[in-house]
Write a structure and sequence with these properties.
The chain is 16% helix and 39% strand. The strands form four sheets. Strands 10, 13, 14, 15, 16, 17, 18, 19, 20 and 21 form a ten-stranded antiparallel sheet that branches. The protein is of the alpha+beta class. It starts with a helix and ends in a 13-residue tail after the last helix. A hairpin with a 7-residue loop joins strand 1 and strand 2. It folds into two domains: 117 residues, Immunoglobulins (Immunoglobulin-like, Sandwich), CATH 2.60.40; 163 residues, Glucose Permease (Domain IIA), CATH 2.70.70.10. Bound molecules: zinc ion. Zinc ion binds next to loops.
Length: 303
């Protein structure tokens, strides 16, 4: 394996330099994450620490978790990225990180993340059959709209991180529907709730959870008047069932900016805001973003 051979050679050179300079022998790169046991369907902060003697020679850190690319940035002497653990993941989600050095050599570090089961209640709903199962004639429209949304989510991996401050809730007040709740419509399990619902009178303010670029404003069959914001580094937030959108595609919005009004558009039984958060194709609990501090140092070497 030439790559491994190059790595070993590079390591031998590193060790020789460290010994010559009287430094401690280089340790292998380490991966750490927070929270220590992430829940399925949540965002995490993932970090990498490379040995001090090698940190300056790193030209790129690449990686992947659950099929989604990672976007490492240097934070002091660590490299940080957001990542997501899929809803429904069993314990032992693999993460793979590759460190490319100036001399062209690379090291790959692999770890396995423990995953906590999300405890979410079942919600029994009764609704008109039309609302539960849209008529066949709409299948094409719904499919095309889903593809539009998925495209925005894919592209967020190509946008640089546009935010520096923590995420905030788009509305004050009570959460009326939690993430991950199993929805049983008319006695049949139809779906899991892939967002968080906030109460709100029609016309109440909806604010951008963080800085980003408006990637979609559209009237969609299921989610009604919908705004998607691309925050970059893989992250998208969505605001569904609005009565009115106050922004247009391509607008840069600031954290806390008024972007729309609560409504009851799309497939709903009453006015509320459905707030979505996604890391690429993975929907995650948006409330987990609110407590995420990208720059906080991680704890390495303790498991
Ligand atoms: Zn909802």
């Amino acid at each position: 394996m030439p790559t491994l051979w190059r790595s070993l050679n590079a390591l031998a050179v590193c060790l020789a330099q460290a010994v010559a300079q009287g430094q401690a022998v280089a340790e292998p790169p380490q991966i750490a994450w927070r929270p220590r046991v992430p829940l399925e369907g949540s965002v995490i902060l993932l970090g990498l620490r490379v040995p001090y003697s090698a940190a300056d020679s790193v030209v790129a850190v690449q990686g992947e978790l659950a099929g989604e690319a990672l976007h490492f940035e240097r934070v002091a002497d660590e490299f940080h990225t957001i990542a997501a653990v899929p809803l429904g993941a069993a314990t032992g989600v693999p993460v793979r990180v590759t460190i490319v050095r100036t001399d062209g050599a690379s090291d790959t570090v692999v770890a396995s993340l423990p995953v906590g089961r999300r405890r979410a209640p079942r919600e029994r709903l009764h609704a008109a059959p039309d609302l539960v199962q849209p008529p066949e004639s709409l299948a094409e429209r719904i499919g095309a709209e889903r593809e539009q949304v998925e495209e925005v989510r894919r592209r967020a991996h190509d946008t640089p991180r546009l935010w520096r401050e923590p995420f905030m809730r788009p509305r004050p007040g009570a959460v009326t529907g939690r993430f991950g709740v199993a929805r049983v419509f008319n006695g049949m399990l139809r779906s899991r709730h892939l967002g968080v619902d906030f109460a709100g009178r029609p016309g109440a303010a909806v604010r951008a959870a963080n800085r980003g670029v408006v990637a979609l404003v559209a009237d969609l069959y299921l989610s009604g008047t919908t705004i998607l914001i691309d925050h970059g580094a893989g992250l998208v937030t969505g605001y569904f069932h609005l009565s009115r959108a106050l922004v247009s595609g391509g607008d840069t919005v600031g954290r806390g900016q008024l972007i729309g009004h609560v409504g009851a558009s799309g497939r709903v039984t009453g006015p509320h805001l459905h707030w979505l958060a996604a890391y690429g194709s993975l929907s995650v609990d948006p409330l987990g973003l609110v407590n995420l501090d990208f720059d906080a140092p991680l704890t390495f070497g303790i498991r």
